[in-house]
Records
---
Amino acid sequence: MPPVERLHLDHVVQTVCALESVVLRSFGPEGGQVLFTRDTGQAMLSRSGARILTALRLEHPLARMVVECVLKHSTVTGDGSKTFILLLASLLRMIHKMACKEPNVSHTYTSRQTAEASTARHLADKILAFALEELDDLIGMGVIPYGCCLSWEDFTAKKHLSGPSNNDCVQKLLTSFFHSRLGRSHCDFISKLTYELLTHWKFKRDQPSLSLEFVNDNLDALHTPVSGFPISCSRLIEGQVIHRDFATPCPQTEQKAVKAAVFSGYLQPKLLNAGQVLQLGCGEQWMEENSKNNRSIVQFSAWTERSLKCVFANLQSLGVSVILSAVKQSAAVLSLAAQAEMCVVECVSEDELSLFAQLSGAKPVSDCWMVEPEHVATLTFCRPILLGAHRYVHVAFNDSEERVTVKPCSLVICGLGEGQTEQYTCAFRDAIRMLLSTWEPMGMTATTASKRTLQSTKSTSSHVDQIPNVPPFQQSGLQPGYVIPAGGTFEFLLHHALLQNGTSCSASDDIVTSGLAVSQLLANALLIVPRQIYSHSPRHFLQAQARFQTIIQNHSHPFSLVYKQEHSSIFGESAFPLEEDKLTKHRFTEADVSAKLFMSDSGLESVSCKYQLLLAVLQCLSSILHVDTVLHTHTALHTQSRRLANTSWEGTDDETED
Amino acid sequence: MALNGDDKDFFDWEPPTEAEMKVIQARKERQDKISKLMGGYLLKGYRMLGDCCDVCGTILLQDKQQKLYCVSCQELDSDVDKDNPALNAQAALSQVRERQLAAQAAAPPALPPAPAPELNEGPSTSQASVLVPQPRPEHCEGAAAGGRALLPLPAVPSPTTPAPTPALVPPRAPVSPQSPVIPPLLQEAEEAVLIKLRWATSQLQSSASLETSIQLCSLIASCANSLRSLKELSQ
């Protein structure tokens, strides 16, 4: 193989299309699952895009780059890996087609392939620039009016008397996520469990998304995977589960509250480490009296053990009966603790200790000579708990004033095998991330706000009298937490908005028919998502497309038509004309929508996640089209050569070299 | 930039004709098939390499036995596969016909009319007749050059048989009763079959694909059968 390889547009398209065909069959709610087998005989079924892509053996540098982008995106939003690949492939095909149609021979490029590559690059950059500037406006105008805003304040409030409310919306969002990730059978149960956990962990006085972030950061300490049980055995446990067992026998103290201290270091200092030299000395007086006993290590360790007894006496005076230690304590410490009837838990992880410290309000002890009352935590109980094949330590905290709104609880996730349990855990983690990114505000600057007011006057003139009470765009754009029905709604609406924007741009601007081309390209590429969702029946795709056209033209709410669609067999016939009129005249507040939402079965997805996905795809597209040379390098450690992709802005160099 | 291209370039560009559109469409379908096949192999555990095939430019895959695999060369019908005798019955037929025609043209000119009436009876008894003086034009793109030179010979109505026969049965000599004419014909046929056998063996040794190997093995088997019947004939 040549050490330097030119990368052509065809290769790029082929690579990404191969990746697309890998994820295509698992895409959508009707998608299949991939069976992973190992040489050891372990088998696992999964539908998660990130898992499938990581399991592929890829040595092609571009393919690896794309998979890395997908994984990075998935770490942030928790979802959308397959959609990422689909959108990327669709955009690449459109760009390829467009680049091939351009005039072949230009006097600046000597080869057709270089011309194609530079056209493609140029197009990708234009699309990215367009998206960075105008996409959030378009979404604000074209998609958000059809959505529903989930406000965080109602998230965990008690059930309203006015019937189904935001709680069900959030649960619906979770259910549709789990449905696409784990399958139909357990999605309701798991989403209910997740919802309960989030309810327990809500900090009322703080910013709402902080509690989601808190849960996200401490997720490792807040869940316990248990394999060997069916998923329906999963439950919430009050308090915190520390994933270690007692190192000393635990005395039975059920009646009174338990006091605990957290030690981050060694109680008996380890003085003799490998590679260190210890120089012993003692006071002159002692030397004179016991000249034959001085400078002996045995004497020294006896001295340290005597000082340990003082430490324990101090702890006993404070009433401490549980010691949580971050490191493994020596045998002397353990025996002294057993004598003093204290239980010791060793090797507790940093995350769990910090969570414990946060929840109990006690600071970890850094210097074992100075144990103050502020280092002592009061617990309701501290006892062993048997979960699956392991025995852990279960602690519960006293209710103090700061924490009266938060009921700490821990989630036990059960699965039939280790692989399955891990899948459920990952799905749970990704659900939290998805919720976090739902409530992330979409970026908006002052310039876009002013642009919006201009465009709003334009668009309201075209939809005359249909929506007298449309909320001002600045307000609707800034509020995070919008959701729309799943099943391609976002793509259809954005497709329409892009086409409209394209035509209005070309009418008013001199600058560029390429602005129209860019909007059209993006609009057409977006349609691949609903096309694949309905791929089992193309008729449904056309029906859905026509339905959305009607919705957009009548400007009625998509939820109502979804509801009607399920109950009327003949498409297009509105059996409830009165209701439709009412909806067009009302504001789209949660109260209006929630009744319909509750009855509609289509599931929800988050607008913010989709927006981030689209931006990530366009950035990835731009970067892979900027690669035009691959340098093969050989490293000493690997028998096969390792290859580096070289992203270069070599536009002018290409021309001169060729 | 190419998008806002110079005006003079626009005049050079014409929209693709219908034939070109068909080619573009066929190429697109081929690319789709390649992607689908590649995706299937990736899911089966093949490794996607960073190299491309020298012949067709498709990305190479490597299986668990470290063997390289090109999806389009080894699975899809490429443009050149139609003329490859091991993979296409019609190409094999036409190649043998070519040889026969070459032999007949070299043989004394009195002979061709004599065997023709025998040949007319012969094929009615045997299923797969190969000694058709005129090769059917739709069979041989590759053999066309050899065949067309001998077109003036009268067409024989028997050639319906090659179409229904399954792959690679053809190189079987017809049963012909006339003994003085037979030996050169039989020898010729034997030679052709032996050449084919030799070729197939060498291909089999170097073949990397399962399907090609299977087809080559069946070719060898039918060559052996033909040789056996040729020997029976000459006795």
---
Amino acid sequence: MQRYKARAAVLSAIFMGLGQIYNRQFIKGLIFIAVEAAALFYFITNLGRAFWGITTLGESPSRLEKVKGIAKMVPGDHSIVILIESLITLLFFVLFLIVWYMNIRDAHKIGAERETGRPSNTFKQSVRYILDYKFAQSFLLLPGIGILFFTIMPIVFMIMLAFTNYAAPDHIPPARLVDWVGFETFRNLLVLKSWSHTFYGVLTWTIIWAVLSTITTYFGGMLVALLINQKGVRFKGMWRMILIIPYAVPQMISLLLMRNLFNGQFGPINQYLGYFGLGGLPWLTDPFWAKVTVIIVNMWVGIPVSMLLIMGVLTTIPRDMYEAAEVDGATNYQKFRIVTLPMILFSTAPTLIMQFAGNINNFNAIYLLTAGNPVNGNYQYAGSTDLLVTWLYKLTLDQNKNNMASAIGIILFIIVAGFSLYNYRRTKSFQEEDMIQ
Amino acid sequence: MITSRKLASFIRLGLSYIILVILAIAAIYPALWILLASFRPGKSLYSKTLIPDHFTLAHYKELFTSPVYMFGTWYANTLKIAVFSMLIGVVLTLLTSYALSRFRFKSRKTTMSTLLILGMFPGFMSMIAIYLLLKEFNLLDTHLALIIVYAAGAPLGGTLIAKGFLDTIPRSLDEAARIDGASNFGIFTRIILPLSRPMITYMALTQFVGPWVDFIFAKLILRTKENWTVAVGMWDMVNTMQNSNFTLFAAGAVLISVPIMILFGFLQRLLVDGLTAGASKG
């Protein structure tokens, strides 16, 4: 009995690719060897510094030093740059470990096959095998890398920031260093009166806003789609064309436009109300009316999207379902309730949840329209219509309270993700997705 | 009996038309208002009537001739970024959604949950990190950086929606093709792609519109004025002028909106026409 698999695995563990070559898979082996060589070259220079950087966040701030009697600025460690550089290196290291592990497993598997007497695959056969049986995974690889570097890495970075004291005025690099402080930021945010009052206030409005804006746009869109799709309504194409217009106008433009339209002094809305003998309303300047305004404007912007989506679903509902319902003598309402509504909900449940999440984080709708104003004197750097997201933005860019902003971001994320994940796993399109097929 | 049913449907249709007309007015009015404002002489936001006394093209001329606004350059920049990020983004989204809809593999549900969760993280919270990352790779102030960021973000937003759509394409079509000897890739290009045209159009449009609208990332990454996109330019215009030159803003807004609206006009048939009706039986 030959012991190919153990030997191949050990060889691969020592240096990637050796096991493959031992298994007579030369091209694959050479590719692995090249990967390991590149990795060694990269990690020898970077890995040590990465571990040092992530634990200390730099040791010497920039300072004045006397060089030949003249005071000179000496650049020190920039904590934030060090943090992100270390993070990138560690990320590459994790990727490398995964490849290394896969390489060992591969060597082991091929070795085991050889023990049963099967010759190992040629390179061409390996490629074919991947295309036929690992198709989904190889399809996901490219988007996966993009997501890893442009989404996951930044998120990890921001989570780390919440545990530092990276905030104005005392800890802004390069003049000063940033340190790890543990949960202090969270404690301040949730317990310290000045911060917690703002936090709970803004949180409440964020939730009200997300629920109202999602419901209004979704059911508004459904209503419009059904109205147009009714039997007997003429000029379907024209209605659709007209009602898509708000969607076709770029969102940023339409929000800036609405800001002018609802302008309390010169805006046309109040002008028309005046024609009917009604006094103008403080659309954007009164805390309550500003909230009403953002929801109305969001309906204008959001209903066409839902309408298009639901119209798309409506066309995919098999006609025979309706025919069957008609044979059974169903009324229009019954057809809607038994056929249309479940089909719409089934197909759009993921969208609905994403819209809800999107609305919690709907930065543009608030920031471009009201910029979070009117100002609320009781709040810490926040206005009456500020969502957690816009507050966070102001904290980062205007106030430089980066650690506080990160902590808010994390809490926000936990709330949204927890709720949505629970909800999503229960929706049909997740559990019984093969139902329609 | 027949007449009462006719009456009922008459009332139903009448009400529907009334609601549709009201909705149509609400949908058109703001767009019409800004279009007319862009032709209005003067600078102010206030105007006595909706339709101006006489029309002028001065604001449009100013956008392209004034040395302060490099509108033409911004326009070309945005178009370039939009086209490329749309192409790459749509391909990436299609890859993920096809894999998730048609294949059953081990970590599949985990992948879906991960996508869902990541999509919920406030986008620009990653701003600082992405900024530093791009700086590491010397990509700041380049259009390539924006294209990469937009395209890499596309699968997060679009995958689950696209997957929901692909799920509704009957699997019997795949199986029929497989029996005829089609490979995975063949099924993807010959069956899934043509049948998901409405979905692709939808994704392409959202992806294309993104760069015209996004000013947060664009403002952060593009530093020199010649490299700006229209969104950054418009944002800057509104912010520095504090709405004191409303008609100029209106002209810019029209120039941004018109091509996108024309695109919508051409593609809207595709957007809504599901192509599966009867395909399974056909």
